[in-house]
Amino acid sequence: MLNRLFALAEHQTTVRTEVLAGLTTFITMAYIIFVQPAVLTGAITGRPTGMDFGAVTAATCLSAALASVIMGLYARYPVAQAPGMGQNFFFVLGAVPAATAAGFANAWEVALGVVFISGVLFLLLSFFGVREAVLDAISPSLKHAIAVGIGLFIAFIGLRNAGLIVMPQSPGAEIHLNPHLASPDLLVFFFGLLLAAALHTRRVAGSILWGIAGATALAIALKLSLPLWPASWAESPLVQDSMLVKRFSLATGLVSLPPSLAPTFLKLDLRHALSFAMAPFIIVFLFMVLFDTVGTLIGVAEQAGFIKNNQLPRAKQAFASDALATTLGACLGTSTVTSYIESAAGVEQGGRTGLTAVVAGAFFLLALFFTPVIAMVGSYAPITAPALVLVGAMMIRNVARIDWSDYSESIPAFLIMVGIPLSYSIGDGLAVGFLSYPLLKLLAGRGREVKWVLYALGVLLLAYFVFVRGKMG
Fold it and tell me: Does residue 369 sit in the same domain as residue 433?
């Protein structure tokens, strides 16, 4: 039955491969289960929103499960979905304060209403074919550049999460390499990376998952052996300031009862969300989910080899799945739900059908009952960082498929590739490329090569950055 439903034979894959890919995808994005409630409740920013931590945790797992299953069954792509990073911070630091400033006492409920409306608009755009038109208007070189840019982006996230790349903490500081290569965090990271890379080189099935498992085992061993370490090392700042000591905690058990969803379920305030004060935030959320979805789908589709003749099959279903995910997430009590670029880890592991996404969704449901174990793995970034770095290394191969001989194609492509990681945003990186592409074509006297959709998109992006993003600071 599964073979017929997901056309496994046609995609030259098996149930075992798809399940393994789904598990890999889930593990690489499981961190959102714990990051999302910390963000939406304000615990991570120091600005309490009034949202219930347990309810947001439940909403995160349920929305990710439902959204991934919808994507797998309806669009039949190996792309899992969950509340998006970036959108969640904009929810807390943008929409909630704006609702408070507008005089709404139930600010977070108004913000959920804003997310819901942006999802409905996103869904309407898919029915009118706007998003497919945008996707089809993007040239092959730009599509390849998106895959490369996202690959660099997630690799950079992996290196940063592992602690190998240190981000500036004060004005005037610069990004730099961590000189303490013998720290426990980097030992865990390098062990997981080398193990996964070696197994991948040998074409061992589940190499990324084995890397994560190996890194987890080493982290547990290091944590348990801390009392046996020489005092000169165990008490040194190198060890005491590490994530292993400060953040990594061994699981206290295997299972626990899921938290209640009641405090956030259907609490969205649509009436106040439609007020003039909240209109700009609806637009921003719409732009963010549009470009993140386009970028992620292109990146994963390029990685899996789905794009044929510059076309993404079943694009309407994929976009509709994403839009439905956002509306469902808002009803459950979480910020924008979108396609996850971490799905590329599952694709690299062999996932080629919607069964991968369905499996990932099933694990999100199970996570509600296994939060102690998921917390142990997902909350310690050096364990999952090797998967992101390895996937990034695989995705960068698309750089060879860009038409470097045509500067009107290669320069916007280059801006996308560097714009995504340097702006630390898929949406902003795409915007830089999509603004420069039609302008350069016009200046080169080749404006007719650009479809009208990209001209319209360029005007909208310019207006967005001048009138909306500029006022956001």
Answer: no
